[in-house]
Amino acid sequence: MSGKTITIEGQDGSFSAYLAAPASGKGPGVVVIQEIFGVNAVMRGIADRIAKAGYFALCPDLFWRIEPGIDITDKTDAEWKRAFELFQAFDVDKGIADIQATIAALRGVPGCSGKIGAVGYCLGGLLAYLTATRTDVDCAVGYYGVGIDGKLDEAAKIGKPLLLHIAAKDEYVNPAAQQKVRAALAGNPLVSTLAYADDNHAFAREGGKHYSARSAGLANAASEAFFKAYLG
Question: Are 156 and 129 within 8 A, CB to CB?
């Protein structure tokens, strides 16, 4: 399955997004929120996989204000350097506004039921959490989000179901930060957390250094069940 590029009109301008559609031409939608490498082959592959499961999957270019069309990998030092530069330059608040615009655009795609979920990885994991606190998404999933512990003052704003996948050996989120997140969210019945005891950051990135087929399979199955429960 291959998707297509569409244009989304945001509050500050237009930006591109990769859209993959289900074979049936109808179903709920899922916003796929990128890592620090842009809308690359990994993100497009995730969108294609979600579309095969019966959803419209839309992955927006959230780095467009810095440089449109970022599409790099995790395979070279130069690309890692550029990815971290993009991460440092990224405006989280504007990114969430773009995600809200993406949600609205996805609801307007012919055949979409209007029920919209979100799933994000790495930087996108943080943005998935904030999508649950700041947007009108119907549910959200975050994989190994970086920086959630610094945004826990927004936890009380979570009004829709949220699932967080936590890599217990995450090199970018230390155990103290993980515990802080889990403790702050433990009392909210809308929030579920799943921890992967032996895994490092990006355990679900196929082809990545820390990829674990077993843990990725478990996490993806849990995410699919979550979306089925809340999106129909």
Answer: no
Joined tokens for residue 111: 């055949």
Dist CA 112 CA 21 (whole Å): 9
Rounded distance, CA 169 to CA 2, Å? 34
Sequence-ordered list of residues with C-beta below 8 angstroms from that of 176, at least 6 positions apart, any chain: none
Indicate the residue type of 202: A
**Domain 4-231 = CATH 3.30.1360.120:** no
Distance (Å, whole) CA 201 – CA 72:
18
Tokens of 163: 């699932």
The catalytic site residues sit at: 170, 201
Q: Are 83 and 37 contacting, i.e. CB atoms less than 8 angstroms apart?
A: yes
Full-model pTM: 0.97
State the Cα–Cα distance between residues 123 and 145, nearest whole angstrom: 6
What are the pLDDT digits (tens) for 154-200? 999 999 999 999 999 999 999 999 999 999 999 899 999 999 999 99
Q: Collapsing DSSP states into helix, strand and coil, what is residue 136?
A: coil
pLDDT of residue 64: 98
Instruction: Determine the residue type at 35.
Output: E
